Amino acid sequence: MLARHRTARDDALVNRSRPEADLSPQMLLSAYAQGAFPMADPETGRVDYFTCDPRAIFEPATWQPGERLARTIRNGPFEVRIDSAFEAVVTACATDRSNENRSWIGERIRSAFHDLHELGLAHSVEAWVGDRLAGGLYGVALGGAFFGESMFTVREPWARDASKVAFAALMRRLGRRGFTLVDSQYANPHVLALGAVEIPFDRYLERLHAAIALDVDFD
Known about the structure:
7 helices, 25% strand, disordered N terminus, Aminopeptidase, 7-stranded mixed beta sheet
């Protein structure tokens, strides 16, 4: 079995006798196409593939920013760039966690996404204030599906809402290019506030397979 369903139960329940996940580009893309995604145990660094039910998604064609975010986009200090600092975004996402909530983005995952980026499959969207990276996100594009992996905002007043601005730019870009699905994996208050909806995993797979079959391009 490629992946296990992850719940709120202790991650120590992972079967440690199994080999660690293969993170080659081919395996990663196969996993995404089956609705699975990699995560590292923050305690041990061990990587496994997971699925979740329900699944949190966004729909690029209909998504709109809220009023406050729309004002920030219009009047804020941010310049949005694409793929200009991919490694910096992944590093920031990996370290933007408190000691109580250590990151699942371990070294193996960072290396794997570097490889996908080199292949033109993983992308970053960044919000800059002058020459300072204020926030951003990264993920994987496959057909007409985009798999959002993580986002961050610098914890300074000048960077407030930077990751949300980057997300809005991503959604606008994907909608214009014909993408039909953004996978957010787990629902949490942050993505729900941005407009994510939860759907059953079987319905998610239907949407996923239809999206992957589309002939669209992130670039």
